[in-house]
Backbone:
């Protein structure tokens, strides 16, 4: 049992590389058995999107990509591989900003991020790029359904990625796919210990859990999965789309 108020983040390293067509549930089950771990009711399984994308075949050999004139032009100005730019444009809904060597897009999912989330790190040494899962919420739901059956417990699943943020340097983890939990905790209208009524306390708990897992998973640890244990989630149907601010409320659009 985790003492009340204490949260544990348990790393789950996976053996070998994930390849298109691999069964992530089988891989996860083997990794948990190797560590003598079992999932428990209330656990949150945080999975880096890259292994989900790889298993789902969202890997594109860069040699097969023919960059457009626009992609080549931006490549010369930014130093980014023109093929990566072409992939980013091909899966984007719109270009949000293109300045100082940075391409910010809105993906078809509705996420605003650099290069539509297209990434060449931790893939195969630069020969291929990984795209975001086509439907991260559905991917999370599929993992959750099968793992619940396998371990006979009620868990939540978060698929995470690293995004930049306005006003702040560096990257941080965000939830791009969610299943089995509410992504936001609404404290508006409740009173603090001093009796003050809260007005703006709308907490992105799914992103906070993803960040906690990111501290343990790291970028170079070969640990794309973590169990977050002891955090009291609000169970239920949830979607990462709930974390996307509507355009009418977005001061950056």
Residues:
């Amino acid at each position: 049992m985790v003492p009340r108020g204490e949260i544990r983040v348990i790393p789950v390293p996976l053996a070998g590389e994930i390849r298109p067509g691999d069964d992530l549930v089988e891989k996860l089950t083997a990794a948990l058995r190797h560590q003598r771990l079992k999932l428990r009711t209330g656990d949150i399984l945080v999975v880096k999107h890259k292994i989900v994308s790889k298993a789902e075949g969202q890997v594109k050999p860069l040699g097969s990509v023919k960059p457009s004139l626009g992609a080549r032009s931006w490549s010369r100005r930014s130093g980014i591989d023109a093929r990566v730019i072409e992939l980013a444009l091909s899966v984007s809904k719109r270009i949000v900003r293109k300045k100082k060597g940075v391409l910010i897009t809105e993906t078809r999912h509705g996420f605003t991020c650099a290069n539509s989330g297209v990434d060449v790190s931790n893939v195969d040494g630069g020969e291929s790029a990984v795209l975001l899962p086509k439907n991260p919420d559905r991917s999370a739901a599929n993992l959750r359904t099968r793992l619940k059956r396998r371990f006979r417990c009620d868990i939540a699943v978060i698929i995470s990625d690293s995004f930049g943020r306005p006003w702040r340097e560096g990257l941080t983890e965000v939830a791009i796919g969610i299943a089995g939990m509410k992504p936001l905790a609404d404290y508006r209208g409740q009173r603090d210990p001093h009796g003050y009524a809260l007005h703006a306390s709308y907490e992105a708990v799914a992103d906070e859990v993803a960040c906690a897992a990111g501290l343990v998973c790291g970028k170079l640890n070969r640990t794309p999965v973590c169990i977050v244990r002891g955090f009291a989630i609000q169970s239920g149907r949830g979607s990462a789309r709930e974390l996307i601010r509507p355009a009418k409320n977005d001061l950056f659009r």
